[in-house]
Amino acid sequence: MLRITQVADGVHFAETKGVNWTLLTEGDSVTLVDAGYPADAPLVAASLDRIGRRPEQLLAVLVTHAHVDHIGGLPALLASAPGARVLTSEREARHARREFLEQATPRDVAANLWRPGVLPWALHIIRAGALKKVSVPAAEAITGTGPLDLPGRPVPVVTPGHTSGHTCYHLPDTGVLITGDALVTGHWTSRIDGPQRITPFFDHDREAAGTALGLLRPLPADILLPGHGPVHRGPVAEAVDTALGR
Ligand SMILES: [Zn+2]
């Protein structure tokens, strides 16, 4: 399954059964935010095709965080888009290069198999290539502050907690906020719909992740594109309050 929805001018939200990514266009050029599981690589390529762009038109891939469900499709994609840079926060770039790993281990998953939805989710992600060791040696740190000189003019907002360099991307012109796994709207392992925090065992530092949500609250944004779950329309401050209140 691959569903692509244009949510704003030049902003395309791609949803699969397991994870989402976003494509930002300006003229012929594209910025991609996140890249799915390893087995999603053909779907990432298909999503570019569906919005009428070729891999050579991909200028950069921004990474919210370097978990296998968000960078898994990158190695295959970069092979066909050698000009694309991979950018994220300084800390997350190191994570993407696998200088360290902050991801739930198979042992963590096994300890949580009794929870609703965890077993079917685990079977799904194994098929999606979650056990594959993925690293992105080309990942670079974003330098400077403010909007990036890339399609979509995204503004990085570092929100440590889910991983210690987790980064959201805000598009002030369209009121879009790409929240990654800092704020989601659904997940195989969740029984609720709407703005929420991800299931606790996925967070590297649960407390920091809660604090980081406060950084999103003041942003002028009312179209939220999460790493998991559908698009959410409504002020980000309300979505953050809902998520923290659950
Ligand atoms: Zn995720």
UniProtKB/TrEMBL annotation:
InterPro entries linked: Metallo-B-lactamas, NDM-1-like, RibonucZ/Hydroxyglut_hydro
Domain Metallo-beta-lactamase positions: 18-228
Pfam families, A to Z: Lactamase_B
Source domain of life: Bacteria
CDD domains listed in its UniProt record: yflN-like_MBL-fold
Identification of the protein by name: MBL fold metallo-hydrolase
Organism: Actinocorallia longicatena
